[in-house]
Amino acid sequence: MNQRIVGVDIARGLAVIGMFVAHLGHSGPDGLHSPSWFVVADGRPSAMFAILAGLSIALFTGGRAVPRGPALTHGWLRIATRAGVVLVIGLLLELLGTPVAVILPSYAVTFLLVAPFIGLRPWLVGVLAAVAAVVGPTLLALLLSSGADGTAPVETTLDENYLLGLVLTGYYPALVWIAYMLLGLCVGRLDLRSPTVQGLLGVTGVGLALVGYGGGSYLQQTVVPDSERTAQLIRSDPHSDATLEIIGNAGVTLAVLAVLLAVTTLPPVARWARLLLQPLAATGAMALSAYSFHIVAIAFLGNEVVWYTESNAVLAWFVVVTLVVCTLWMRFVGRGPLEWVMRRLTVGAYRPVPAPA
Fold first, then answer.
1. Which of 72, 203, 260, 312 is geometrically suited to a Cys-Cys bond with 67, CB 3.0 to 4.6 A?
2. How many Å apart are CA 94 and CA 261, to the nearest integer?
3. DSSP secondary structure string, 224-262?
4. What are the counts of helices (DSSP H) followed by strands (DSSP E) for the chain?
5. Is 84 left (phi over 0), alpha (psi -120 to 50) or beta?
6. How far apart are CA 177 and CA 173, in angstroms?
7. Helices 44-60 and 70-94 meet at what angle, rounded to 10?
């Protein structure tokens, strides 16, 4: 069994808190974030969550060891059963009718799309992630954006065809988001405790962020789109699901992950970093519970806490309560409640059958 990597848990905790900010953060009369730096929570936390989901798939299907034979089959079953539980939880959360776009059903579908690739070497998975980051958004633009004749080949909405929405037309289309999970699968096969790997992730992350966001800004200032389809292809703004946004978001995640891995593994700062960041690590270790219960809390409080914020007071309460409860829960109880359900209802870790004496 793989020992938990604290830096990964902290990154996952940051992603959860970032989604709180995206859902509950205050906006001024002009519709802009207040404070303005809350813009960092637009699109990036959910992308980080997806990349870390792919990383988790790598960890629970062998870690650095690419699964083969019975281990590979077991890995497929483990992913499939986890996808089923995540889907059910997501569907139940959607029934609450909150104004939050619940990400879990799309995650479940993307899990299944990623499963066939867990037996590939990391470099090949990385290549496939890059291909998916180009092909997925391009297909999305071709199918959903209007061409010269003003029509799009696919105009079905999520409400009209639920499965099509999860794969193509929804808020988190699996056709595009598979790129994030494949990247996470690639990264999860590496030695994340190695300073060399951490440095490589950091440099790569900064480079991707500059290419994605910088390239998108340059193209939008210099290219005059001749159609909605062209305009979609050169976007890099949050939730555009365009290639440049994927590249930028991936870069941010890799850079943040590299820093967190470094400060939690390298002496002499590791001990203090682990202590100070323990609330985030606890939140990340029970991310499914933290994310799900924040949707339940929004349903209980009413949609006004999302649509009609007067300040960031509600957001602050959500963050503080989540960090405190998760820290205490991990300290005195252990596994999160939904994580416990996941463990009970899904295929467990692979244990090779001993050879007969």
1. 72
2. 34
3. --SSHHHHHHT--STT---HHHHHHHHHHHHHHHHHHHH
4. 17, 0
5. alpha
6. 6
7. 150
The amino acid occupying position 89 is I
**DSSP code, position 36:** G
Query: Angle, nearest 10°, between helix axes 195-209 and 243-263?
Result: 150
Q: Which residues are CB-neighbours of 106 under 8 A, at least 6 positions away? A: 90, 166, 170, 171, 172, 173, 174, 177
Residue range 108-154, pLDDT digits in tens: 999 999 999 999 999 999 999 999 999 999 999 888 887 666 666 77
As a whole number of angstroms, the distance between CA 71 and CA 130 comes to 26
* Residue with the two structure tokens 């490589």: 200
Closest CA to 291 of 244, 338, 334: 338
The answer to whether the CB of 126 falls within 8 A of the CB of 69 is no
Task: Write phi, then psi, for 353 (nearest 5 degrees).
Answer: -80, 125
Q: Give yes or no for a contact between 284 and 16, defined as CB atoms under 8 angstroms apart.
A: yes
Q: Give the pLDDT confidence of 15-46 residue by residue, as tens digits.
A: 999 999 999 998 877 777 788 888 899 999 99
Give a three-class secondary structure readout of 134-157: HHHHHHHHHHHCCCCCCCCCCCCC
Beta bridge partners of 33: 27
Q: Distance (Å, rounded) from C-alpha 110 to C-alpha 185? A: 12
